[in-house]
Design goal:
- By secondary structure, the chain is an alpha+beta fold.
- The chain has 2 domains: 14-49; 53-132, Immunoglobulin-like, CATH 2.60.40.
- It has 2 helices and 6 strands; from the N terminus they run ααββββββ.
- The strands form 2 sheets. The chain has a 3-stranded antiparallel beta sheet, with no helix packed on it. It has a 3-stranded antiparallel beta sheet with strand order 4-3-6, with no helix packed on it.
């Protein structure tokens, strides 16, 4: 008896429509996956490597009803220049003082005690943020 084939000979008729669609989907998926990896890598590199200025409040001291001293530590590239904004708050959380401090020194780390003038007695001081020029 002769065996009956259920499929066409592969070399004679080319690929089926399902095989072509599968290949196209694999190519599109690979391209989109590579783009996603590229975008995530670029965002990560920009976040980690793109920050040339960072700062933190080490401590603060309420000196009087109208001023707060803040010990600020800034880490930056030697050539980087920038401005950090600090705020003083009262118990309710409202701002009672805000000040910008500029850092132009050609060093990597700057430790500085800065004074914020307030409109009433402050209970806290915080770093709002820093901008690089």
């Amino acid at each position: 008896m002769a065996a009956v084939r259920e499929q066409h000979p592969p070399a004679r008729y080319g690929r089926s429509a399902d095989q072509r669609a599968d290949r196209r989907l694999k190519i599109v998926g690979a391209v989109l996956g590579a783009l996603l990896i590229g975008v995530v890598g670029w965002i990560g590199w920009d976040y980690v490597g793109g920050q040339s200025l960072s700062a933190q409040v080490i401590k603060f001291k309420v000196v009087s009803d109208t001023s707060v001293e803040v010990h600020l530590e800034v880490t930056k590239d030697k050539k980087a220049k920038g401005t950090c904004t600090l705020r003083a708050q009262e118990t309710s959380g409202d701002d009672v003082g805000r000040a910008d401090f500029r850092f132009d020194e050609p060093v990597q780390q700057v430790d500085k005690v800065v004074t914020i003038t307030t409109t009433s007695r402050a209970t806290a001081a915080a770093l709002v943020g820093c901008q690089s020029d």
